[in-house]
Amino acid sequence: MSEHVLPIPDDVTTPWWEATKEGKLLLQTCLECQHVQHYPRAVCTQCAGSQLHWVESAGHGVIDSFTVVYRAPSPAFTAPYVIARVRLSEGPTMLTRIVGADESELACDLPVSLSWESLSDGHQLPVFQLTHE
Amino acid sequence: MSATTAIVGAAESDLGVTNASILTLQSQAITRALADAGLSLSDVDGLATSGVSRFSATQVADYLGIQPSWCDSTFAGGSAYEMYIARASQAIASGQASTIVISFASNQRSARSRSLGGVVETHTPEAQFESPYGPLFPLSYYAMAAQRYMHEYGATRADLAQVAVLAREWALLNPKAFRYDAGPLTVDEVLAAPMMSSPLTTADCCLVTDGGGAVVVTSLERARDLAKPPVQILGYGESTTNTSMSQVPLLPTGAVASGKAAFSRAGLSPSDVDVVALYDSFTITVLLSLEALGFCGPGEAASLVASDRVRPGGDFPLNTSGGGLSYCHPGQYGVLLLVEAVRQLRGEAGARQVSNAEVALAHGTGGILSTHATVLLGVDR
């Protein structure tokens, strides 16, 4: 990946982005109903609770689906690259990239593991690679 | 439900490459639709539109010199116009307005205003958690839905391509279609087109054209005194599911809920529908919507689209204008689904006219399978 569209963290998401600097993928857990969610919000989408605390993801999931982008949306990106929805073992699904794999190796439901890509502002972006057993 | 409102006017603006402004095209669509109904601007007391500016309905009202007692600029991409049919019917039933224009126009091809990445609003969660990965918007989401669909049902890229092939077949019968003179399209041509976001090629994507349209809604009682035979609004339903690319399952879509609501309100079932206009932003959109609306079972849409039933002369005519894939796609195609449905029910569709069409379904899909709105229309009986 070349230069990125840089995120602008807000009151809720600043701790999440700070944790990426240490290679930690955080998820929110609701203290009232134990629901786990991502992206971070000011409210639990299951019980409307506002007592949300951070837990670290184990970094394992499966590919829900994927697409190889062949024409980059802006000069900030260099095609081709793999966009994917990864369903984490903790429950939430996140948009991400699969790195280090050819398109021919990819398929829905394959297991993947967390990896990191550096952003120019010091944050890191969570990406995934195929889990080779 | 017995219908209380009707569409009494329908028209397109100039289409294709117009070199006209958005408001010029809006004016064309609105005045042509009013003329179609035998009405004039001074009759209009309600206006629903979007895609003009931050204050879309206000902007168009100002431009036309009208001061409506009801307006709506719900921003829901291509499905907004089917949603406006619901809101307009309710506004008329409640007495807040009597004559409502629903309109849209865009000059996106002339103005080269379309961007592959979409519009990123930096304060949204997507800007932080999705845009940094570089998905094409909306294309990459539909591409992931297609990939999942192929995985679950064993469908192929050729199955997707059949949707584009069908759209072209109908477009060859529509002189207004952008691809009217382009000749037939083949599955191999779709498969050989440049890959954009796998498994979707440029030929799996809708056109980028200028264009617009408008419809006029009033009470059924009043409609019976106007210029053209009324087209009854029999039912409607909608579902809003997501703005991000990660938060809801890819399949099935919100069209399940919008379709159920529309059929229930109309007291009809899928087998009652004579002509169908589905939003075809991408080839996959049509397969997903056919299944979600109950026209076939999960995984069965590909064989339906490849059959003669959906083609000219078939008993299940699908996207008879040529669709967003081969007729016109000005960014929000939803209003043109309504225009085509009205023309088919009135018997005004020329070489592509479906015989004995009494019930039509128009289904809009907005954003990244974000909003789904279904409208059932019928001839006045």
Quantity of strands of chain A, as a count: 8
Distance between the termini of chain B: 14 Å
Q: Which oligomerization state do the chains in this entry correspond to?
A: heterodimer
The strand line-up of the biggest sheet of chain B is 3-2-4-7-1-8-11-10-9
CATH architecture of chain B: 3-Layer(aba) Sandwich
For the largest beta-sheet of chain B, the strand count, sense and barrel status come to: 9 strands, mixed
Largest sheet of chain A: 5 strands, antiparallel
Unreliable runs of chain B, pLDDT <50, ≥5 residues? none
Listing every helix as H and every strand as E from the N terminus to the C terminus, the arrangement of chain A reads HEEEEEEEE
CATH topology type of chain A: OB fold (Dihydrolipoamide Acetyltransferase, E2P)
The helix fraction of chain A, in percent, is: under 10%
Q: Looking at the structure, what is the overall shape of chain A? A: globular
Interface with most residues? A-B, 42 and 38 residues
The overall number of domains of chain A is: 1
> By CATH's scheme, which homologous superfamily of chain B applies?
Thiolase/Chalcone synthase
Q: State the name of the first-level CATH class of chain A.
A: Mainly Beta
Strand content of chain B: 15-25%
What descriptors fit this protein?
heterodimer; A: 133 residues; mainly beta; OB fold (Dihydrolipoamide Acetyltransferase, E2P); five-stranded antiparallel beta sheet; three-stranded antiparallel beta sheet; B: 381 residues; alpha/beta; Peroxisomal Thiolase, Chain A, domain 1; nine-stranded mixed beta sheet; two-stranded antiparallel sheet; 11 strands; globular
